Every structure is written in structure tokens, then in C-alpha cells.
Amino acid sequence: MNEYDSNRILDITKKINYSLTKDLIETNCYILNTCHIREKATEKVYHDIGRLKKEFRNKKKPIVLIAGCVAQAEGDILLKKEKYIDAVIGPQSYHQINDTIIKLEKKLKPINITEFEVIEKFDTLNFIKNSDSKISSFLTIQEGCNKFCKFCVVPYTRGPEYSRSIEELVQEANHLVKNGAKEINLLGQNVNAYKFEKKKLSDLIFEISKIKDLKRIRYTTSHPRDFTKDLIEAHKNCDKLMPLIHLPVQSGSNKILEAMNRRHTIEDYLKIVENLKKIKPSVKFSSDFIIGYPGETYKDFKETIKLMNKVGFINSFSFMYSSRPGTPAFNLDKIDEKDAKNRLIEFQHIAENVKNKYRKSLIKKQLKFYLKIK
Ligand code: SF4
């Protein structure tokens, strides 16, 4: 989503005659779009600013703007601690970036814009053409989250769930296809919680699939609780929908899922996998895993390995649990770091084998949907 947001920030700033430069020293406005999901995000910002300062030593400093979720979560601290930063702007306020830059050009005081103005943001963005011209383009359809998993910052940095209208999304998808996109990846923190009036994600997929020159549709990231029957059916009825589903599970242990407040069980998860496979035998899955969540025993961890082998995830994103300030899990007792590290190594080794086994099975195969795109 940050990639989508960065592209849109560029589209917006073009309106006040800014453009992208690859030469840092030419920069007169430096925008760092940040992610807060992992530990050390804030330190990375200070580190980056340090490099920038070095580059601009004895030269006129550029306007420095920190955008994204670090700005949202720690904006005041950033402005206080690092005077080189001129403004912080949250992920739901970046439609105000031009006003902010114009104010800063006039040398006004540091600015903090971190309200949740998601409706206003998309109202503004709808009037600015998406100029992304990649074969595979991102399209944000939904933002925010109401689920409040205990480890996660998203509900606090992106705010509550919000879905854009089908009409504006079809319009933006058409622009992307005109710009050359063959594939669109629909984005949302809870993409399958998409709901606009009575329309769901499956309705949106069918609408977008009507765009003639669009060959493929993907969506990410889904939550098991929102994996409704109509979405499963869409995998049968929509040819353009790719048979790869990123469905984060986080842990294979029901005890840990409950501790995380994931609001689903392993049985629920496996039922979705089973139903999808029934409808589309070629479907494959990828997932996210948190290893070493507070309270995880080796037995719980073995459940995660069991799940990995059972589903055969062809791609996995696994991390050692990292506590995020402001989340309910922040003050929980962590498990021994060495144990967590060893489990992560063990898990990644198995995940790599599962992935490679799948990749080897593809050698010398030609797949229909890859050919279609040419
Ligand atoms: S559902 Fe996803 S985005 Fe929402 S709180 Fe849980 S992990 Fe975070």
C-alpha cells in the first residue's frame, strides 16, 4: 500500500510542479514514506535523515517531509527530536501535501497533519489521474481495520475500515489499464472486508473484470473472517482472478490465535482452504507468520509447522514477534529471544523446502494464464 501511496503522492505533487528525481542532491523536497509495522521503524527515519544531512552539509537544505504510519504514530516525537524534519503527514492526510509544501516554501513552522481524513483524501485523489504505468499496478480499494489483533498497529495508524465506491474504483482501474496495466492488484489492509453500500469484494472483482484489456486480477491482504462464500465462488466464475491467495494465518495454534485476538480458529482457516481447493483445484496459498508470540510454547510452534506442511504455502512471510508501542500486546512477557530465533530458523527452513518443492514442480510447464498476457 505504501507503494500505491507513494505513486499517488507523486501524482499530487506534480500539480505544484514537483517531479521525481533520481539524483538526491537535486532534491528540493524530500518525502520519506514510512511503515510502522516492524520494530526500529522510527530509528530508520532518524538514520535516513542523518544521511540526508550529510549529503546536504554546507548546502541549502531541502524541505523534509515524513509521510506514512511512522508519522501517524510518532509525529510529535519526530518533530521534537529532529529539527531537520519540516512536517509529518499521516497516511490518511496526504491529500494535503501540496498545501503543506507551499506553506513550507514560505518557511512557516513545522507542521503535523495526522487526522484520519480518509473520505476527504479519496475525494481529492479521484480528481487526480493515477499515472502508474506498470504492467502490474496497485489499486487501493479499502483502508483501515476494525479487527484489533493484539500485536498490530494498523487500526491505530490507518484508522477504521473504509471502502471506496465501485464507481471511482472502476474509473481508476480504467486509467491504469489505459496506461498499460495488464494486471491489477486490489489492495486493502482487510481487502475482503470491502463493502460499499451492499456491494462486496466479489461484486467489485466482477465489475473490474469487464475491462477488456485487463488480463489478471489479484487482491491482498485478506482476513479469514471475511472470506465469504461469494468470494470463494468468484474464484470459480471469474477467469481473470488469479488462483493465488495471500491469507495471513499468523500461527498454527488455536491457543495463540485466541491470545492474538485473531477471531478465527485453525479449523475455520482449513475450511476456507478446503472450499477454495474444491472449487478451484489449482489454487495456491501464501501467508504471514509471527513466530515466538508471547505465550508460544514449542508445542504451539509445532502446530504452525504442521499447518505449513498441510497447506503447502508456496510463499511465506515469517518474522519473530516484534512488540509495537501502543498495542495491547506491548506489555506482555516475551518468550526467550534465543528460542524465538531458533524457531524462526527452523520454520523458515521448512517453508523454503515447501516453496522449492512447488517451484520444481513447475519446471518445463507452460501455464495458460501466463501465455494470455503476451
Ligand atoms: S486484521 Fe490485519 S490489519 Fe487488522 S489488526 Fe489484525 S493484523 Fe492488523
Layout of SSEs?
Layout: H1 2-14, E1 29-34, H2 41-55, E2 63-68, H3 69-81, E3 87-89, H4 97-105, E4 111-113, H5 118-125, E5 136-140, E6 142-143, H6 154-157, E7 162-163, H7 166-178, E8 183-187, E9 195-196, E10 199-200, H8 201-209, E11 216-220, H9 229-237, E12 244-246, H10 254-259, H11 266-279, E13 284-291, H12 298-311, E14 315-320, H13 337-361, H14 368-372
Parallel strand pairs: 1-2, 2-3, 3-4, 5-8, 8-11, 12-13, 13-14
Antiparallel strand pairs: 6-7, 9-10
Bound molecules: iron/sulfur cluster (SF4).
Q: What labels describe this entry?
A:
four-stranded parallel β-sheet, 374 residues, binds iron/sulfur cluster, disordered C terminus
Describe this structure in words.
- β9 and β10 form a beta hairpin.
- The protein is 42% helix and 16% strand.
- The protein is α/β, with parallel strands linked by helices and 374 residues long.
- A 4-stranded parallel beta sheet has the order 1-2-3-4, with helices on both faces.
- The chain binds iron/sulfur cluster (SF4).
- Iron/sulfur cluster is lined by residues 145, 147-149, 152, 154-155, 189-190, 223.
Mean pLDDT: 93
**Percentage of residues in DSSP E strands:** 15-25%
Q: What is the multimeric organization of the chains shown?
A: single chain
Distance between the termini: 27 Å
The ligands bound in this entry are:
iron/sulfur cluster
The largest pleated sheet is described as: 4 strands, parallel
Shape: globular
Strand arrangement, largest sheet? 1-2-3-4
Name the poorly predicted regions: 370-374
Rg, Å, rounded: 22 Å
The residue fraction in helices comes out at 40-55%
Helical segment tally? 14
Q: What order do the helices and strands follow?
A: HEHEHEHEHEEHEHEEEHEHEHHEHEHH
The total strand number stands at 14
Content-based structural category: alpha/beta
